[in-house]
What we know:
The complex is a heterodimer.
Chain A: E1 19-21, E2 29-34, E3 38-44, H1 49-60, E4 70-72, E5 76-82, E6 85-90, H2 97-100, E7 108-112, E8 117-123, H3 127-132, E9 149-154, E10 157-163, E11 171-177, H4 178-192, E12 197-202
Parallel strand pairs in A: 2-12
Antiparallel strand pairs in A: 1-12, 2-8, 3-6, 3-7, 4-5, 5-6, 8-11, 9-10, 10-11
Chain B: E1 2-5, E2 9-12, E3 17-21, H1 33-41, E4 49-55, E5 63-69, E6 75-80
Antiparallel strand pairs in B: 1-2, 3-4, 4-5, 5-6
Amino acid sequence: MAEFSWDVRSPLDRALVVGPYGSTGDAGVSLTEIRNFDLIQVMARRGKAAETAKAAKARFGVAAPETPKAVGTTDATLIWSGPDQFLVLSKGGKHTIEALAPVFAGSASLSDQSHARALISISGAKARMALAKLSSIDLHPDVFPVGAAAATSMDHTSVTLWRGRDRAEAVFSLLVFATFAESLWNTTLDAAAEYGVAIAHAADLG
Amino acid sequence: MRIVCPFCGERELGEYTYLGDAKPQRPAADAGEDAVYDYVYLRDNIAGVMSEHWYHGGGCRAWLKVTRNTLTHEISAVEPTAGAGAAKVGV
């Protein structure tokens, strides 16, 4: 029998080259891929939205988002992904599918997306300018404040985009299907090149 | 053209896929061949206000019923179709 050796790699392993890119000088955009996270899709079963919401409140201590928003808890981020559904993003194995299965038993269907998506953090003074080239939604802080989220498309690719807690300036987070990640990564680099890009990857969620 | 998704807000056309007329209803099992033929193949070519199904595949993946004037592209109503999440809208 053949011996399989699974080499776990990021979908951006090939495309991501750590260091500066594009215009020289101060980087206007920071692009960081975040590796190693748990991502669980929670979808309420038909007619069980209220039960799902109750279970989520009991588990996370805050209400799960019912509109396009991202809600931070002490050890997870709950991101709206569609009507009666949200994503649970966490690290350190606290909210794995095994941990959440009993919580939502009977009320929601769960799907482990941990290795199915790439997570990219986009920040910097010109982050919004770069994203504006790819996204048709308005990311101005007046209409896309901290905690705003959107299920939308960038460069014809479905993404989940949200604005997390600021770190000196706005930080946008982007979840994209793993097989589309390289394509969107290169497109984002093209869009951001004129502002100067600082490329990195992080082992864990901040 | 933009469509205001009841879940996501105003979005560009590229996020949506068009299905077609929202009016035809699946005939009863014993309705006969003509009724099934009509349901599967025959469509009105409406010049004016029409009820249509659109899919927000580039966003929240909800099916929507859009009332649109095919002459002017004016959209007068957008509602979610029956299914997940639909009960919550408008409450």
